[in-house]
Amino acid sequence: MSTPASAADAAAPPPPQRTVQVRPARDDDVAAIVTIVAENVRLGHLLPRSAADVRHSLDNWLVADRDGSIIGIGSLLVMTPVLVEVRSLAVAPAAVGQGIGAALVRGLIAEARRRGFPTIFALTRAVGFFTRLGFSITEHERFPEKVWRDCVLCPLRERCDETAVVMALHDQAGDPDDTATSGDARP
Q1: Are the beta carbons of 109 and 176 closer than 8 angstroms?
Q2: 10-38 pLDDT per residue, tens
Q3: Phi and psi at residue 2, in whole multiples of 5°?
Q4: How far apart are CA 97 and CA 85, in angstroms?
Q5: Residue 143 in this model has a pLDDT that exceeds 70
Q6: What is the model's pTM?
Q7: 59-84 b/e (C-beta count within 10 Å ≥ 16 → b)
Q8: What is the tens place of the pLDDT at every residue in 87-136?
Q9: Which CATH superfamily is domain 19-168 in?
Q10: Which residue in 95, 79, 103, 101 sits closest to 178, CA to CA?
């Protein structure tokens, strides 16, 4: 008599958990970061970033590393001593919807707090994603530093389809809501 499939399945060990670690980017991550940026530039989600740009700002990048593969990226861009932007947030297409984007944003928020910034913001099309993480909608005009630094170079500057979102970090006691799902945002 053979063993029923359900008994055999119950005896089989579960598949190993694939862990994702959000960590600071390293020099050997630059090629993967540039690849994810380029994929998202083609999709219209991000502005281009060269390998030289990434290397120059490497201390501001976090990556989501799953078993040695980079599946998500995000960076901080210091605008002023009191204002920092979430920028170049993107998740590899195969990893979208797995909470990777939310984990990256939580990591970037924690890093901004650690550095003492009282305010963090983003320009995004993924408004719901950011509001679920505790950001509030605001006006672009609140960030003239961003407009003059990056928006003037953007091909969509005359018909911008992004929404400004902001979070005050000094009155946030804990981490943002952990229930948000992943998403991509353009800076």
Answers
A1: yes
A2: 555 544 457 899 999 999 999 999 999 99
A3: -85, 160
A4: 23
A5: yes
A6: 0.78
A7: ebbbbbbbeeebbbbbbbbebeeebb
A8: 999 999 899 999 999 999 999 999 999 999 999 999 898 999 999 999 99
A9: Gcn5-related N-acetyltransferase (GNAT) (3.40.630.30)
A10: 103
Q: Region of 110 please: left (phi>0), alpha (psi -120 to 50) or beta.
A: alpha
Identity of the amino acid at 185:
A
- Alpha-carbon distances, residue 5 vs 8, 9, 11, 14, 141 (angstroms): 5, 6, 10, 15, 63
pLDDT the model gives residue 18: 72
Dist CA 138 CA 144 (whole Å):
13
At a CB cut-off of 8 Å and minimum separation 6, what does 181 contact?
Answer: 97, 99, 101, 102, 129, 132
β-bridge pairing 20-24 and 69-80: unpaired
Integer-rounded Cα Rg, in Å, for the chain is 19
Which region holds residue 21: left if phi is over 0, alpha if psi is between -120 and 50, else beta? beta
Contact present, 31 and 51 (Cβ < 8 Å) = yes
Tokens of 34: 């540039």
**156's tokens:** 């969509």
